[in-house]
Amino acid sequence: MRLIIREDPKAVAYYTANYVRQRINEFKATRSRPFVLGLPTGSTPVEVYWHLVDFYKRGELSFRNVVTFSMDEYVGLPRTHPESYCSFMRRHLYDHINLRSENIHMLDGNAEDLAAECQRYEDKIKEVGGIELFLGGIGPDGHIAFNEPGSSLESVTRVKTLAYETVLANARFFGGDVNKVPKLALTVGVGTVRAAREVLLIITGAHKAVALAKCIEEGVNHMWTLSVVQLHPSAMVVCDEDATLELHVKTVRYFKSIEQVQEQLIGRQNIGLKGSISKLSHADAQGLYTSAPQPPSEPDSNASAEPDLSEEMGQSDVDEEEYVAYSDAGKSFKATLMPVDDSAGSSGELHDGASPSATRAAVAAVGGPFQIPPSPQNSTIC
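The line above is the sequence of Glucosamine-6-phosphate isomerase; the predicted structure tokens follow.
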């Protein structure tokens, strides 16, 4: 799972919308092979939709060959009601883009047979080949769509009774009157979301910090249904700084360091959109890696002291090896930070117990050693 941390909700919205834009464009959808997109409702994705509309109006994105499935709908609320999710999706997205009407799929909360309506929805998803990317928001209690705490992690589209906390949270859309909020909803299941080939969750705000911590740092638990993304082979969470308030500092640093390594050491041009290593050209490899140099035969008294990497990592000492693993052209590589004792002299012997100021980056690779060039003094290594 990838965790992308941005400064605030606006930055999160732009990153998410831009990612969706790139995924659709990269997919090169056709009418017979559409890009199938699962979409959420609620306040979190609104600004994402604004950016998507803007991309469309600027000619940077087309929805002509996109098929959409909305996550949920209230039971008993007319589709024309301003707070129905049908109205929500049209108001914020569908009425402003070139999405074909036959490609828009929404649950009908006024169907005579609600169970049959849910089965119809699941069958339609299978008919179009499954969902390529499911975009989702979460509630403060960690629910995905209307899959409240305690929902089965294998559940599919069904009728769901809303928890009281959810009713309270949604009362703001009904003039603050909880009595006007529907108590039942149709929702895709946790299993429906898991079946998508990719899941992208948006989490913003300090009020969702506990939910994010449960998702990232604790185990899979049906009381926090968003935690199921830990089991997904291609899942990403995009959050703001406030949402990380309950995470351990080392967790935040770890995920930030992944992006830093990709940007500074591997190069964005070599990273696929989903974060995988695409390829390293010969020129890129030459620029990134050099043969491990031999240590000088005599200490240079005029040489400046080497940077204290442990201080940059927020540690008082280097107790464990820090490494980044990746692969290219069938070969696996591992870049490891290892202590080097300056007192080793010409032998350049590596051993434990070296002082932090003597730490150097040494690298072991399949097929021969190489070394990552030193990071700039103002960079952070986590």
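Note on the example: The mean pLDDT is 80. The first helix runs from residue 9 to 27.
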